[in-house]
Amino acid sequence: MISLFLSLASIGLLLSACTLPKVVSTNPDTFAQISSIYASNGTLITQVPTNIVRIPIPLSQMGSEIPKAVVAIEDRRYWKRGPIDIKSTIRAALADLSAGAVVQGGSTIEEQLVKLELGTPKRTLAEKTHEILLSLGSLAGTTKSIVLDKYLNDVYLGEGTYGIQAASLRYFSLNANQLNLVQAALLAGLINAPSAYDPILHPALALYRRNQVLNALYVNRQITKQQLSSSLSAPIQLNPSNTVVNPKLGYFSETVLNEAATLPALGSTPTQRLNLIEHGGLKIVTTEVQSQQKQAQKAVLDGIPNSANMPSGALVSINPANGAIEALVGGPGYNSGKAYSQFNMATQAQRPSGSTFKVIALAEALTQGFTAKSVFYAPKVLYVAPANHQSAWVVHNYEGEPTGYMTLLTATALSVNTVYAQLITKIGPANVVSMAHAMGIKSPLLPYNSIVLGAQPVTPLDMASVNATLADYGTYNAPYSISAIYDSSGKLIYSHALHPKQVLSPTIAATEIQILTHVMTEGTGVNASLYRPAAGKTGTGENWADAWFAGFVPQLATVVWVGYPSGEVPMIPPTTPIYVTGGSWPARIFAQYMTSALAASPIEQFRTPTSFAVAPPVPTTTSPPKVSTTVTTPSTALTNVIGMPVSLAESTLSGQGFKVSLSFAPSSEYPPGYAISQSPSPGVALVKDATIDLTVAKGTLTYPSIVVVPNLLGLTASQANETISSVSLSGSCTTNQQTGTSGANQTPQAVWEQSPIPGTQVPLGSTITCYNNP
């Protein structure tokens, strides 16, 4: 009766298995293989570090000893039966039924392979039955050799090794086909309990288990009695080698791995993605151009003195046409052992960008209607009153920067802070924040006026993305470092897709590029000159703690940062040999790298703003045009000439065929002789010979007198008021008790606060505010 029941059960299992799908592995360690990272040309850069190694080889390259030993100890009837060992399975099932749980093994090599692919052990009777069904279904039609090949490549053998080849190298420094009988027996014995029988950690237990395998080989008639006797007496002789992959990464490779960890194509969770990256045998093809990467590393090393306690450098270089990161240097050397050497300054460090941020404010200003010829007065020191919950802001120009009236082009080329401080109050910091994020800044930003001078921290990758957007005439392509990923079988599982977005008018971008070329030819960036059309911007952080150069040609955008990874350390003597500004070391690094990187590239000209003019549509029909009986008069859009000198404004309008009628009026915004308004408004379509009413600021072009604000702190109210009057300033002190401060400021009638602060340069007649104790 029992035998009949078992026969029916066996038939039922077989029938059920016919409809089972193939098993898909969910265990990341099952097929542990080394993943590799390649340059854009297919050259191997490095391998992904992992503590798990699998080196697949075909069964034909494993020699004869290993397959014999494994079959003898794990499944001695393997070659004599079908996919499931019915006898041993039924025997185990009877014992399990009697005990009410699984108490016997009985797993064949096929069943073990299924468990490996499932990734979790099955211990209940129901799970054991399911395991058998899966084995039948998944391995139906598969040859014995293929099953054994897969099993011997997937089984775990301790010390982080999966598969016979990896284990042979780990324990004996031999290929699998070089193993002798006793060596093969030792490896076969590890399958049952790789940690317990680890010959490196537990040689006595390993010897005991090896001899069990040798006896199984003898019982299975695979070796003679003489072979058994000589093998049992042989000592364990190991020759271990380190097969765990711990290659040297670099800043670019680290960036690649971080990007890969975000890709949904590699898994739905971060853990799944990380497991596949480390153990999936992936081929990751990157955007790195190896020649440029080497040139970038050399330029950063050459550009900073090689002596103790010098700052570090970072560089990011992006192809503007698609956002591909072609070179990236994140510090002094990823494997140099120096402090912060494995902190990637190119992608992880957020530092104040200084005046390189002005390119974003300039884009917003041009969008709002300012032009390269817009005129500002640039004092040496500018006091910006508190607004929108911001504190008062005192802006200084760097030593040697010009003062007086100048155009926005000149202020940009010479990086005049007080002009850009005025500009931000006109265009609005919130608008600049929006423009920054649109152009490629991913770091968080706050809408404060000081943003225009790069006071808020961003990464070099952020700024490289912004400049790539400009170089591609306002088209933003998200920066990326991975082009494609292939799985261990060579199947493409990820390919980067471009999603270009026009975030800035091409005409505006081309106009800004024209302005930024002057930085390179006559401004603060002359040290970055490339002897080909190039645009860029220098940046120097507060107290010389960060120095930047950001620039581009049509084919390549590059940003260089120099500073101390440990924090905001002033790069001034004696800490550094010179005062390090964006126009010094960063500009020279930029020039050296770009000159080398572009050596084989043709010289390209930037497009002009007028090249983006929309051409009239081409007729799509050959039908004769309809004859209109309406007479039309050609019209021209009126150019914006506000902010131009009157002579230039008149010639511009006359060149468009318009007549000009001049009038004069006082202006607090524009200097005498500059156009302050026009009617009709700019952009209106007018016929030829139309008259334009142009209003010009009247008066004589003179610079306003500048007064240095005196120090009133500690004076009595009457003394302070007398001092204010004596230097031709206005205002007086207000009585208001200072609280929470001890010392001199508690003195009766003493001035304890003033605005602007002492030393600020302000125009003659400016108002001073101060407060004194009762």
Automatic annotation (TrEMBL):
Quick check: keyword Cytoplasm in the entry? no
Record Gene3D superfamilies: 3.30.10.20, Biosynthetic peptidoglycan transglycosylase-like, DD-peptidase/beta-lactamase superfamily
Q: Name one GO cellular component term.
A: outer membrane-bounded periplasmic space
Instruction: State the name under which the record lists this protein.
Output: Penicillin-binding protein 2D
- Which keywords has UniProt assigned to this entry? Carboxypeptidase, Glycosyltransferase, Hydrolase, Multifunctional enzyme, Protease, Signal, Transferase
Task: Specify the taxonomic lineage.
Answer: Bacteria, Bacillati, Actinomycetota, Acidimicrobiia, Acidimicrobiales
Coiled-coil ranges (or none): none
Which species is listed as the source? Acidithrix ferrooxidans
- Region (Disordered) residue ranges read 729-760
PANTHER family, per the entry = BINDING PROTEIN TRANSPEPTIDASE, PUTATIVE-RELATED, PEPTIDOGLYCAN GLYCOSYLTRANSFERASE
Record field: catalytic activity: [GlcNAc-(1->4)-Mur2Ac(oyl-L-Ala-gamma-D-Glu-L-Lys-D-Ala-D-Ala)](n)-di-trans,octa-cis-undecaprenyl diphosphate + beta-D-GlcNAc-(1->4)-Mur2Ac(oyl-L-Ala-gamma-D-Glu-L-Lys-D-Ala-D-Ala)-di-trans,octa-cis-undecaprenyl diphosphate = [GlcNAc-(1->4)-Mur2Ac(oyl-L-Ala-gamma-D-Glu-L-Lys-D-Ala-D-Ala)](n+1)-di-trans,octa-cis-undecaprenyl diphosphate + di-trans,octa-cis-undecaprenyl diphosphate + H(+); Preferential cleavage: (Ac)2-L-Lys-D-Ala-|-D-Ala. Also transpeptidation of peptidyl-alanyl moieties that are N-acyl substituents of D-alanine
Show which residues constitute the signal peptide.
Answer: 1-21
Q: Enumerate the CDD domains for this protein.
A: PASTA_pknB
* The organism's place on the tree of life at top rank: Bacteria
Write out the GO MF terms: penicillin binding; peptidoglycan glycosyltransferase activity; serine-type D-Ala-D-Ala carboxypeptidase activity
Cite the PASTA domain residue spans from the record. 632-698, 703-774
Q: Which InterPro entries match?
A: Beta-lactam/transpept-like, Glyco_trans_51, Glycosyltr_51/Transpeptidase, Lysozyme-like_dom_sf, PASTA_dom, PBP_transglycosylase, PCN-bd_Tpept
Nucleotide-binding listed as a keyword: no
Q: Name one GO biological process term.
A: peptidoglycan biosynthetic process
What segments bear the compositional bias annotation Polar residues? 729-749
